[in-house]
Design a protein that fits this description.
Blueprint: H1 3-13, H2 44-69, E1 74-80, E2 102-109, E3 115-120, E4 130-133, H3 138-152, E5 157-159, H4 173-182, E6 191-193, H5 195-203, H6 207-227, H7 240-253, E7 263-267, E8 291-296, E9 299-300, E10 303-304, E11 307-313, H8 323-341, H9 349-362, E12 366-369, E13 372-374, E14 406-418, E15 424-436, E16 441-443, E17 452-454
Parallel strand pairs: 1-5, 3-4, 5-6, 11-17
Antiparallel strand pairs: 1-2, 2-3, 7-8, 8-11, 9-10, 12-14, 13-14, 14-15, 15-16
């Protein structure tokens, strides 16, 4: 055992003296979800109407406020088939799978604060857009865009170019060049990056979305509960890959797309982990006495989840999780509370991270924080609060401030010695989807406060 490892273990053993053990107050917002069959799931066809209603609501009420906030008079989202802007599908009605040849969306802010939603396309999109031009050749289409810009005479024109935010860098080089060619003389000086508008558009959750989001997260948690049960796992036979593929195929059965391959691993007595890594765990045949972990993400009604939960495989002579593991998980819940307690409107991700680390260290908690926004993407733009490979400041993304009505994957891990494993450090890896309402963090479908049990 190295000197660093001894120091970490000694610090971890201080946890019992700081109140971060099983004697701590019961964690709030805990919720046990047993399966996904208790949740209704719309057919793909039935999803179109609510998705489009939520889009119309965003365009009608949210977008005007954000364009005013960012001082952008006109926003251009220009796309070509097979090379769509990353945010294109967050702006168009369903069912659409691609841009049609060259598709131009024009958002023009009027004096009364409302925003015209216009298209300059050979094929009009229909509601909630109005066609400003349709039909004709590609050259005629670009000329029509230039004429429309001249007619509207915006003071600032936002385009999706960004050095630091990939989601806001959707305007291709060729389209950018063509745009400059058709702009009225002198209008190129009005061009500004729309990166802040894009980030705000993607990160902001509406009241209608927050109505359905808990249901979506509940489905994801329900499938995890099914996977971490005796209906899927036979100790000594089932592998971690078997469980991962069960999760993937279960979501396919529910007609819900995953945005990454589910990951399943185990920790086992005698197999120690590097205390510096966030990715502790092995793969292979699951045995009794193993501690299991999974990482799962789906998207439904355009909203994505990101969830990590843990399970314990009971030994033949056990009927409950050993107390040392319960204590460890309680420390993990305490870390979550420390982190979410630092969520204050206007604070940057870097400031939240620094405050979390300082408080966790003062309580003797060995933690690693790598929390990120979620929404239209599993890894969405907004304030980055640590990264698994960087527990210091993250430039740009970590400097982004916290806004109300935004959603996050509360992600990270703690390391805690477990007496039943001879003081071996166990990694409790946690991730639960939540939203910040401006005052506090609320878990969208509760959070895990006790292990799933495999008998």
């Amino acid at each position: 055992m190295g000197i660093k490892h001894i120091g970490l273990l000694a610090a971890a053993l201080l946890l019992n003296a700081t109140g971060c053990d099983a004697n701590s107050a019961e964690p709030t917002q805990g919720r046990v979800i047993e399966n996904a069959t208790d949740f209704s799931i719309l057919s793909p066809r039935a999803r179109i109407a609510p998705e489009n209603e939520m889009l119309a609501d965003r365009l009608e009420h949210l977008l005007p406020r954000l364009m005013e906030e960012q001082n952008i008079d006109m926003w251009l989202v220009l796309n070509r088939e097979k090379a769509e802007d990353p945010i294109y599908f967050t702006l168009i009605p369903q069912p659409e799978f691609a841009a049609r040849r060259t598709t131009m969306l024009v958002f023009n802010r009027l004096e009364d604060g409302t925003v015209e939603r216009l298209t300059v396309n050979r094929y009009p999109l229909g509601a909630p857009y109005e066609a400003a031009w349709q039909g004709g050749s590609l050259d005629e289409q670009w000329d029509a865009l230039g004429e429309l810009i001249a007619e509207k005479n915006p003071g600032t024109i936002g385009i999706n170019v960004s050095r630091d935010w990939s989601v806001a860098d959707g305007l291709t080089s060729a389209l950018h060049t063509r745009l400059l060619e058709v702009l009225p003389e002198g209008f190129d000086e009005r061009i500004v990056s729309a990166e802040a508008l894009v980030v705000r558009w993607i990160e902001q959750r509406t009241e209608a979305e927050l109505e359905v989001y808990p249901h979506i997260v509940g489905i994801a948690r329900g499938v995890i509960a099914e996977a971490f049960s005796s209906r899927v796992i036979t100790p000594g036979i089932t592998t971690t890959d078997d469980v991962a593929w069960y999760i993937r195929e279960r979501f396919k059965e529910l007609q819900l797309p995953i945005w990454f391959m589910p990951y399943v691993s185990f920790q086992r007595e005698g197999i120690t982990c590097d205390p510096e890594t966030a990715f502790c765990g092995d793969t292979g045949v699951i045995k009794r006495g193993d501690l299991l972990h999974t990482d799962v993400g789906i998207c439904y009604l355009k909203l994505c989840t990101d969830t990590q939960e843990m399970a314990y495989v009971l030994r033949v002579d056990e009927d409950d999780v050993p107390q040392g593991f319960k204590d460890a998980y309680r420390v993990g819940n305490r870390w979550q509370d420390i982190l979410t307690g630092e969520f204050v409107t206007g604070r940057t991700g870097n400031e939240i991270l620094a405050a979390t680390i300082a408080q966790a260290e003062s309580e003797g908690i060995l933690s690693s924080t790598y929390t990120h926004p979620i929404g239209f993407y599993g890894h969405a733009p907004g304030p980055t609060i640590g990264m698994w490979d960087n527990q210091g400041p993250t430039p740009v993304q970590g400097d982004w401030p916290l806004y109300p009505n935004t959603a996050y994957a509360i992600e990270g891990n703690i390391k805690h010695p477990v007496a039943e494993w001879g003081g071996q450090l166990v990694h409790i890896k946690m991730e639960q989807s939540a939203y910040f309402n401006g005052e506090r963090v609320i878990y969208l479908a509760g959070r895990q406060t006790q292990f799933h049990l495999v008998r």
